[in-house]
Design brief:
Blueprint lengths: L2 H24 L7 H6 L6 H30 L4 H22 L34 H21 L2
């Protein structure tokens, strides 16, 4: 397995994915502020949460990049379209399993069943994170497919 490629390219791909998600949120394509969601697991302060969440997302992205690199090594090939397919699987699991389960463990996120007494500051994402805007699933899918394609291209070059 290409350990140096994983370490460098995983970081680059994750930083690009995170920057793209933040940009999409800032220009109004989605209301999902994933660094805020992740950081709010740790701190109540929204400004600190965004910083902490950015670094948590980088760490999580490195973990996923390790999975991609291991899969490429097992297949004895890496290219953009295999990486893009991995990105489709990755985003599919994220939008249908991970995000909908998040309210169950997130101390500052409401659940679908939260009533008016809830003191949660974040709304639940719902299936496909649709509660954060109709374009959220598409934006999230596009950036994850690009993430996988980039890893496939960059790890292929080594």
């Amino acid at each position: 397995m290409d350990w140096a490629g994983w370490a460098l390219f995983g970081l680059v791909a994750t930083a690009a994915l995170t920057a793209a998600m933040i940009t999409a949120q800032l220009v109004g394509l989605t209301r999902l502020d994933f660094p805020l969601v992740l950081g709010a697991l740790v701190t109540e302060d929204p400004d600190r949460a965004r910083v902490v969440g950015f670094f948590l997302h980088l760490c999580a992205g490195q973990g996923f990049a390790l999975g991609y690199a291991a899969a490429f090594a097992l297949l004895h090939r890496a290219n953009w379209w295999i990486g893009a397919l991995f990105g489709i699987v990755h985003v599919g699991v994220a939008l249908t399993v991970i995000l909908p389960l998040l309210p169950g463990v997130h101390p500052r996120m409401a659940s679908q069943r939260a009533g008016p007494a809830s003191r949660a500051v974040l709304e639940p994402p719902g299936l496909f994170a649709i509660n954060y805007g109709i374009q959220t699933p598409l934006v999230t899918a596009v950036v994850h497919v690009i993430y996988g394609a980039c890893l496939g291209l960059l790890l292929q070059a080594r």
